[in-house]
Specification:
Blueprint lengths: L4 H16 L20 H15 L5 H4 L11 E2 L2 E2 L1 H10 L6 H4 L13 H15 L2
Antiparallel strand pairs: 1-2
Helix pairs in contact: 1-2, 1-6
Length: about 130
């Protein structure tokens, strides 16, 4: 039986608390992994490794950070993601709630796109896709 959303959140919270040395009450669904919880590049290696082992899934860096979007002139103009760029983000990050980002789609805000709930949805989607 697959884990429930609450069970996934609890496990993700535990991984984030351990990897980022934050208190468990800081790991709220709406907390951003970078801005609120202070994750850095090296932390993502640790987090993704632990999540992959814990849930038996594979998480590609490009799923969490579609960096190549930032270097494509079709997707970025004057430091702002274009409508095509936002559409590409939706395609590559279907688990992410982009509503807050869309109101101010500046590329410097992209680091705060990934929230705890987005990370949980990514895990849920991967687990659902792995089911027969």
């Amino acid at each position: 039986m697959p884990p429930t959303s609450d069970e996934i959140f609890a496990k993700v919270r535990d991984v984030l608390v351990d990897a980022l040395a934050v208190d468990d009450d800081q790991v709220a669904p709406e907390a951003t992994i970078v801005g609120d919880l202070g994750a850095e590049s090296i932390d993502f290696l640790d987090m993704t490794y632990k999540l992959e082992k814990l849930f038996g899934v594979e998480i590609q860096r490009s799923e969490l950070f579609p960096d190549d979007i930032l270097t494509n002139a079709v997707f970025v103009k004057d430091g702002v993601l274009t409508a095509d760029g936002i559409a590409e983000l939706r395609k590559r990050m279907p688990f992410a709630d982009l509503s807050r980002f869309e109101s101010e789609p500046q590329i410097h805000n992209l680091g705060n796109l990934l929230t705890v709930s987005n990370l949980c949805r990514l895990i849920e989607n991967k687990l659902a896709a792995a089911r027969p």
